UniProtKB/TrEMBL annotation:
Family listed: Belongs to the small GTPase superfamily. RGK family.
Protein name: GTP-binding protein
Localisation per UniProt entry: Cell membrane
GO cellular component: plasma membrane
UniProt keyword annotation of Nucleotide-binding present: yes
Main location: membrane
Keywords in alphabetical order: Calmodulin-binding, Cell membrane, GTP-binding, Membrane, Nucleotide-binding, Phosphoprotein
First and last residues shown, out of full length: 63 to 257 of 314
Function field: Binds GTP saturably and exhibits a low intrinsic rate of GTP hydrolysis.
Quaternary structure and interacting proteins, as annotated: Interacts with Calmodulin.
UniProt KW Membrane keyword: yes
UniProt source species: Microcaecilia unicolor
Source domain of life: Eukaryota
GO MF: calcium channel regulator activity; calmodulin binding; GTP binding; GTPase activity
Amino acid sequence: SGSSDSIISSESAPGGIGDLGGVIKVVLLGDSGVGKTALAEIFGGLEDSLPHALGDSEDAYERKILVDGEEGALVVYDVWEQTDSRGWMQENCLQMGNAYLIIFSVTDRRSFSKVTELLLQLRTSRPNEDLPIIVVGNKSDLVRSREISLEEGRGVAVMLNCKYVETSAALHHNTRELFEGVVRQFRLRRSRRDR
Ligand code: GDP
């Protein structure tokens, strides 16, 4: 549809990123296999939206969601794994978002240890910016193979000064709340800036 083009072009206008009323570009970060694609696809398919990819890309999902009575437009980018380690593509990912989800699997300690690393990389690329960043512990349905407790996940998020959400893409548990949370975090910062 033509609307997605206009959304993108208005966002890429100089100084347009993050402006009031703009589209929130959400970039998914995290180790391979943690559920980035699963979460992005759920987002793209949330009710009252036609699941569609943006342009030719199958890795960006755009939709509007109603949060606290106000519509918010989000584009979710599932492109992190296409980036070469620490190359320009990766830097591009770290520069393009105005919100980030750092995702790990609660069944995989290795993916959890990447969270701190990714956050430091992001904060190094975007110094002095108060970005909405949510740490996401996915696969909460896999109770028996859990390696990271809710308390431990929450503890790291507190230490890193981020929000923490546990989700199950498999059960669609907390997925809507996750993306609503992104919008709320974004608006909170917007209202602080405008004060
Ligand atoms: P990505 O590499 O981060 O994009 O991860 P994927 O979305 O491709 O998911 C990797 C595997 O984990 C797939 O087999 C998914 O079906 C599975 N998966 C993703 N999220 C969940 C979840 O919440 N619970 C369970 N049980 N499996 C999941």
